[in-house]
Specification:
There is one protein chain. By secondary structure, this protein is an alpha/beta fold. The chain has one domain: Glycosidases (TIM Barrel). The protein has ten helices and twelve strands. The chain has an eight-stranded parallel β-sheet with strand order 1-2-3-6-9-10-11-12. It has a two-stranded antiparallel ribbon with strand order 4-5. Strands 7-8 form a two-stranded antiparallel ribbon. The longest helix is centred in the middle third of the chain and has 23 residues. The radius of gyration is 19 Å and the shape is globular. The chain starts with a strand and ends in a 6-residue tail after the last helix. The model has no long low-confidence stretch (mean pLDDT 91). It binds zinc ion. The site of zinc ion has 8 residues, from helix 5.
Amino acid sequence: MVLAGGITGLETVSLPWLRDQGISFAVVTCPEDEARWEAERLGAFTRQLARAGLEGYLAPVGYGKVLDPDPAVTSLYLHTHPGTLQIDSRGRRCAKACPNDPRFLEWFANSMRTLAWLVEVKGFVWDSPSFYHSRGVWACRCTYCQRLFSAAAGEPLPRELLPEVLDFRRNSLSLFLLAATAAIQSVDRRLQSIVVPPPPLDPPTATGGADNWKLLASNSGAAAMGLVVSPEGRGYRLPEEGALLPSVQAAHGEGKPVWLWLTAERLHPELVHEGRKLARNLGLEAIVWSDYEALRRTRAKSPV
Ligand SMILES: [Zn+2]
């Protein structure tokens, strides 16, 4: 179950109700700008979770926006460190820090270490790591990316999103995830990393860089993968199994479990049923319901 209402919203979460629904773990969303002031409250909630017998996971959002599941989430870091932002193919700065910028990486690792000290959880969720991309415009062409690319390839970073540039971006995000895992595990070696790539994009060539499941799942930092699905159009139809199978097989081939990450405005009992069926047919190891409010709104009678 995802608790996405922010840190102050955690006060309204009923842990006995979660347990009554058969929920065994909770992913607590931790927005950067709120964590600045509400860190103690966040830590206390994760300890309550643990005492209630629920496994907790922390999903940091904001934090330079490399992890960017929701464009509405703010990041004070971006405003105070404009020099570390990604630079797109038109030469403009984007509202995302560059995962290859060592100044950003240091701040990010420090922030994650601080969170790891503060909370009592089983692991961290890295949700939708990505580079900027939009309608043929892509990032990043900052000094660090240019340097890293030419050091490895022996030629300047092309202006077009060529296959070697796509690979460079994929590898950069993979290294970022390694650094993120190293940061939390420097506090506690048992802390796990759950990698949740963005859902496949249309067209598939317009990529943020986290589109290669085999590469992401083979990352030694990744303990499990999250497969985001949401109902398409009206009704409760979820994507066809066939469309999801290659991602699942890539992860299982690397020995990594896959959690179905079901995102919906409302978790109707029919959708819950569909989600369970999909997870079973794909051989997935867990289901994450997103989110708490969606389930409460639905007032599902049947246990989830
Ligand atoms: Zn860059």
